[in-house]
Amino acid sequence: MKKSKSRNLQSRSRWLLGAVGGLAIASAAVFLAYPSMTATAAANPPIPSGETLSSWVENGRGGRYLLELIDGQAPSSATSGTVLSDADCEPDADRINHCHNEIKLADGRTITVINNHRMMNNRCLGPGDKLKIETLDSGWVVGKLV
Questions:
Q1: Which secondary-structure segment (H or E) carries 98?
Q2: 126: nearest Cα among 98, 91, 108, 101
Q3: β-strand pairing of 64-71 with 130-137
Q4: d(CA 133, CA 129)
Q5: Which domain of life is it from (predicted)?
Q6: H or E stretch covering 143
Q7: Cα–Cα distance measured from residue 72 to residue 87, given in angstroms and rounded to the nearest whole number
Q8: Contacts of 3 (CB under 8 A, 6+ apart)
Q9: Counting beta carbons within 10 angstroms of the beta carbon of residue 60, is it exposed (0 to 12), middle (13 to 18) or buried (19 or more)?
Q10: Going residue by residue through the chain (146 aa), what tens digit of pLDDT does each one get?
């Protein structure tokens, strides 16, 4: 009889230990996922006022891209540019891609932009693409495929 009680106690102890361990793992997963969920929300910047887009899903329609400037200086007047790179295009939870593109301007300067768009609706800008670039607002340019 004592062996039976001892086995029951061991069985309950193992079950309790497993349940506590599982809860700890689930809690850690939620804790680690939470920062990426908030980062996703912050990764979709507001569309500048006066812009014709109603959502980032539309960005790139008709070859017109609203681009967020993250490095370099926006041109003072309309100019041409050539896309040098396309990187970091993983979609967020809303299936919006935030592709980073380097663009060489006609005067030789390079700017880096983020192309917030839904790749399944409108393609990414790719190396070799030619654009007409215009400054829209502080921190934003518009690139039109030519």
A1: strand 97-105
A2: 101
A3: unpaired
A4: 12
A5: Bacteria
A6: strand 140-145
A7: 17
A8: none
A9: buried
A10: 556 666 666 777 776 676 666 666 755 554 454 444 334 444 689 999 889 899 999 999 999 999 999 999 999 999 999 999 999 999 999 999 999 999 999 999 999 999 999 999 999 999 999 999 999 988 999 999 99
Residue 46 is classified by DSSP as P
Strands, E, within 31-96: which ranges?
Answer: 64-71, 79-83
pLDDT tens sequence across 33-63 = 444 433 444 468 999 988 989 999 999 999 9
Instruction: Kindly state the tokens that stand for 49.
Output: 């006022």
Residue type, 24: A
Burial class (CB in 10 A: 0-12, 13-18, 19+), 123: middle
Is residue 122 within 8 Å of 61, Cβ to Cβ? yes
Token digits of residue 19: 């349940």
Q: How far apart are CA 25 and CA 124, in angstroms?
A: 38
